[in-house]
């Protein structure tokens, strides 16, 4: 509805187009973008000690809290379990929050080979829905998972971790984030 000031109608601003929003985002510095990015780390389902549905509820609540605090871009490492659940939650929330973006950080192209069919299909569907896919390495190497994790942490200002204290990639990611002063939000795994 327009407002009348001194005999002149003042119309509300029109909503920005997608192209205008993208142009604004392109103007942001990398440091400004970093402040709106969050990544995920967490255990595979077989390592979790809590019911999966409870973990998914906690993940969604933490993602919603992050959105409330200004986070709009989420990075998933695309591993089965926590990463794929979190990525799917972000995709689903795009209906309510259309400015959300999902970046899929894939360690290497053949990453899901050898997975159960159900997980491989979830992976493929999530890749299709991601706003950006970053392939970390062309080939597998023992270090590629840590390189992926470091790539994610280096590009965010918050880590959401589903973690139960045991050694492994999740702990390594958390330790890397701590060394680089990136805050970690913990959800019990």
Cα shape? globular
Count of individual domains: 1
What structural category characterises the helix and strand content? Answer: alpha/beta
Q: Poorly predicted ranges (pLDDT <50, ≥5 residues)?
A: none
CATH architecture: 3-Layer(aba) Sandwich
Task: Tell me what the structure shows.
The protein has 189 residues and is α/β, with parallel strands linked by helices. It has a single domain (32-188), classed as Rossmann fold, CATH 3.40.50.450. It is 42% helix and 19% strand. It is built from 7 helices and 8 strands. The strands form 2 sheets. The chain has a 6-stranded parallel beta sheet with strand order 6-5-4-3-7-8, with helices on both faces. Helix 3 crosses helix 4 (82-93), helix 4 packs parallel to helix 5 and helix 6 packs parallel to helix 7. The model has no long low-confidence stretch (mean pLDDT 90).
What is this structure's SSE topology?
Elements: E1 3-5, E2 8-10, H1 18-27, H2 30-34, E3 37-42, H3 52-68, E4 73-76, H4 82-93, E5 101-106, H5 117-129, E6 132-135, H6 144-154, E7 159-163, H7 169-179, E8 184-188
Parallel strand pairs: 3-4, 3-7, 4-5, 5-6, 7-8
Antiparallel strand pairs: 1-2
Helix pairs in contact: 3-4, 4-5, 6-7
Identify the notable features of this structure and list them briefly.
two-stranded antiparallel ribbon, 6-stranded parallel β-sheet, 189 residues, 42% helix, Rossmann fold, 7 helices, alpha/beta
């Amino acid at each position: 509805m327009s407002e009348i000031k001194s005999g002149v109608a003042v119309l509300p601003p029109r909503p920005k187009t997608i192209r205008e929003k993208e142009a604004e985002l392109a103007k942001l510095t990398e440091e400004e973008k970093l402040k709106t990015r969050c990544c995920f780390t967490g255990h595979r389902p077989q390592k979790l000690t809590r019911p999966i549905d409870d973990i998914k509820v906690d993940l969604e609540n933490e993602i919603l809290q992050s959105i409330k605090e200004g986070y709009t871009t989420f990075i998933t490492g695309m591993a089965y379990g926590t990463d794929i659940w979190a990525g799917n939650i972000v995709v689903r929330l795009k209906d309510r929050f259309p400015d959300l973006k999902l970046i899929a950080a894939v360690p290497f192209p053949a990453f899901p080979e050898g997975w159960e069919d159900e997980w491989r299909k979830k992976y493929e569907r999530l890749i299709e829905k991601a706003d950006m896919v970053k392939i970390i390495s062309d080939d597998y190497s023992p270090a590629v998972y840590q390189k992926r994790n470091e790539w994610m942490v280096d590009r965010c200002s918050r880590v959401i971790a589903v973690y139960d204290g045991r050694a492994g990639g999740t702990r390594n990611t958390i330790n890397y984030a701590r060394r680089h002063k990136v805050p970690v939000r913990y959800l019990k795994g």
